[in-house]
Structures are given as C-alpha cells and as structure tokens.
Design a protein that fits this description.
Blueprint: H1 19-25, H2 40-50, H3 54-63, E1 68-72, H4 78-86, E2 95-99, E3 111-115, E4 117-118, E5 125-126, H5 128-135, E6 142-145, H6 152-160, E7 168-172, H7 176-189, H8 198-208, E8 211-218, E9 221-229
Parallel strand pairs: 1-7, 1-8, 2-3, 2-6, 6-7
Antiparallel strand pairs: 4-5, 8-9
Helix pairs in contact: 2-3, 5-6, 7-8
Length: 234
C-alpha cells in the first residue's frame, strides 16, 4: 500500500437469529424483487437509457451498485472517467483500489490503495491477481482495478460475484462487445476457462458486469460514445 501498511484482523462472530428476528429487525424490508429476470433497478436503468437520460443512468448504476466496465482506446479518458465515478459513491463505503501505477483517488475516508509490483528493484513480485485474492479478506464494499490486462480478469469477476457488486475497472477496447471479448480472451489465455465455450464465458461476464461505458477521443475532446446494458425486457 503506497500510504503505509494495511492489516486486517477478522474476528468470527456467530449469531443465532430466527426468521422472526430478521423480520422484526427490518432486515427483510429492503428487498429488490426481480420479475421476469429484471429487478426494479434494471427497469429504472432501461427507462433512463430509452429516455436518453445518460447522467441519470450512470449515476443510478453507481449508487445502486451495478458493476461497470469502462472501455476505450489509448488516451480516451478511461481513468479520468473512473475517478469521476468514484466521487458518486457514498462517503461511508469502504473502497479498495488495485493498480500497478497510482492513478485512482477515491474521496472516501475508508479506503485502501494496493499497488502491484513486477519484482524488480528489490521489490517482491506482487500481481493484480494476488492483490485481488488478498483484498477479499479486507472486507471492501467495492473493488476498483485500474486496468484489466490478463489473468486477473477471472479473479475480478469472481470477486464481484461473491459479494462486491458495484465494482469497476477499465479495459482497452474499441467497442462494448470488444471489451467483453477482451475479458473472455484473457480468461482463455490464462487457462481459467477450461470446459467453457466462448459463448458461456461471454454470458457469464455480461451477467457479472452488465454495463460497458465506451469512451472515445474525437479530435481533442474525450467523452462517452456508447453505452451497453446487458439486460432485456423481452
């Protein structure tokens, strides 16, 4: 961690609740109901997109903890946009960033920055993948990986799908579908997709990260050029 060491101490506490105690404590009061495969949040997001309310779509996705992949070419503004998204997250959430170069600056007070190293200049060889595995013991609300480049793609997806929705990362690709293709290819090249077809991988990736925000540099201006949302009302 660039700002000093980070230590997690986990104390296991087992509570013995009844269903009635869950009811009376209010733990069953805020349940999102999915009808026909779509949740209330999905329907709100679809409505925003159809009405052209792009800011509302992005802001709702972030605050409701829908995972997002930011895609774009070189110098298209991916990291800048990711930093902007970090500012929309509740100040009380615990944020973990994982990078090889420090570029993400979440404003939340409860945050941990983890840096990978390539094992040169007297430092240990620490990969983004190993940081992802370690980060799950640190009880983050969300994980933010500066850029997905290789074997960490599988670990990132698994981390999201095991209790860390609303996590985000960036990837180099020219289209939203190209971004999904990139993740699938990374998983295949890392040997972590044995027994799964490419179609299966694409379906899994889109289930875990249903939103791709595509950025593009047009002349000297950078901005969002396309949004893909992998949910359908049909």
């Amino acid at each position: 961690a660039p700002e000093g060491g980070s230590i997690s101490i986990r104390k296991q506490v087992v509570n013995n609740f009844t269903l009635e105690e869950y009811r009376d404590s209010g733990s069953l009061d805020k349940v999102s109901v999915a009808v026909g495969g779509l949740s209330d949040i999905d329907r709100d997001l679809i409505a925003h997109l159809r009405a052209g309310r792009i800011y509302d779509f992005v802001h709702t996705a972030i605050t409701k903890r829908v995972s997002i992949l930011i895609s774009g070419g070189t110098s298209s503004g991916k990291t800048t946009f990711l930093n902007a998204c970090l500012k929309s997250i509740d100040a009380n959430e615990r944020i973990l960033t994982l990078e090889d170069t420090r570029e993400l600056f979440p404003p939340q007070a409860n945050k941990v920055h983890l840096l990978a190293s390539k094992g040169d200049q007297g430092t240990a060889d620490v990969t983004i993948q190993s940081l992802l595995e370690a980060s799950l013991r640190m009880r983050p609300d969300r994980l933010f990986v500066g850029e997905i480049r290789g074997a960490e793609a599988f670990s990132f997806l698994r981390a999201i799908n095991t209790g860390h929705p609303g996590s985000m990362s960036t990837v180099h690709a020219d289209t939203p579908m190209g971004a999904y293709e990139q993740l699938a290819m990374m998983m295949q090249q890392a040997g972590m997709s044995s027994g799964y077809s490419k179609a299966d991988l694409m379906s899994y990736i889109q289930m875990v990260i249903p939103i791709v925000i595509q950025l593009r540099r047009d002349g000297g201006k950078r901005g969002v050029s396309e949004i893909f949302f992998a949910r359908d009302e049909s």
